[in-house]
User: Fold Prophage Clp protease-like protein from uncultured Gemmatimonadota bacterium.
Amino acid sequence: MMDFTRYVATRLRALVTPQSEPIPGSAQVPNSAGGFAWALDKWSRLDRFLVLGTEGGTYYIGERELTVQNAGAVAECIAEDGVRAVRRIVEVSASGRAPKNDPALFALAMAAGMGDAATRAAALEALPQVARTGTHLFHWLQYVRAFRGWGRGVRRAVGAWYTARPERELAYQLLKYPQRDGWSHRDALRLAHPVPRGEVQKTLFARTVQRGSLAELDTDSPALALVRAADALHADPGVSPARAAAMVREARLTREMLPTPLLKHPEVWEALLEEMPFTALVRNLATLTRVGVLAPGSDAADAVAARLADGDALRRARVHPVQILSALRTYARGRGVRGRGAWTPVARVVDALDAAFYLAFGAVEPAGRRVMLALDVSGSMMANVLGLEGLSCREASAAMALVTAATEPRHFFTAFTAGRYRSMHRGFSSGLTPLSISPRQRLDDAVRQVESLPFGGTDCALPMLEAMNNGWMVDLFVVYTDNETWAGDVHPAQA
Assistant:
């Protein structure tokens, strides 16, 4: 008897459908790799865009097409419930869930220009919550031009971005982020025409717009002291590194506020390090090593390690785990992603970054289940994580596996490799190879373990098939992949 129900049935478990075809009667759609899967709803696509973005595209789809697809999902959410969309944009941005803030800024600009009156008002009111720095503001100004002009609402929102800030914080933003994307604070202030709240704000605005020196005020304002210190360093090209370092400590200046020639002196960097913001610290580890501040056994290396071990400070600074992971991979490599500069990594700092990666996740609660993880190690996983040069999807998946290993005591790791299952693509086969990943391993050890494996087709049904064939007791299957399953004779939902 021919078993017709292997190919046509109303109950998924009775079906065996190749992943190159949709399950009969389902709403599956083709993915970018040639397989079929279920489409995400618009709100899930909004979340995915806000967290992952589209920069650089993926192995299977280019940046332009991916951006157009995701922008369409954002527009659909704005049309259906714009206020809810704005609320979600703020939640993802403010929680630090995304490695980069640009997708949230772009989506907020869309809402400010494409939504109904309530949505536009909500988007403009939310601007300070999403655009938290001068750089964020300039990015948003560049994005919003594509969706609306400088009407009263935009002028009011941008003006409030400046006037609502405490005086020293305002001065800090004006000095640290003077211009980006063809925009400057002078441009924004001239277009917004904010009404200053007091003489100090008035003086700061006038200095920025008129490009002059500070007016003399009979006040010991910390905001004006910050500006005067930065101006004094720029006005004296012969200032000694020791004097510059003292001024950095006294006024709490940042790197961007200093003349470039001063940044080649170790004593200046030592002073900057003392109160360097967390994100800037992670970004400048290579420079601190190149100029000799970070060295084996140095007090600076101990101080950096102590700061990286402060999990609460990491989370307050919204440092995303992937940013830590990217910094770790770049720093440990000893050279820039594009070959710019070289340094000898300090082991103490490498170890601290490795530990900080886990701290950045916060308190991960174990599910208490028997977990089987399968890692995609195929060629497509060598593509960069969206928007992060130098960090491959394969490295990121190995890192996530280590997080699971550290939180779930009953776990079992495998990787998709060449094996006994045929693939729909000639020349490929699929299989699962057990991995002995331990929570006591260093991240670079885990990455080396998966790099040496022969990759095969990514068949996301294999974990279920192997568990059934071998009698493994599994409560939860987790697959880390670039999300384009295509190889195999049966869909994961059927397996």
Q: What stands out?
A: Residues 421-429 have pLDDT under 50 and may be disordered. The longest helix spans residues 63-95. Residues 332 and 345 are 6 Å apart (CA to CA).
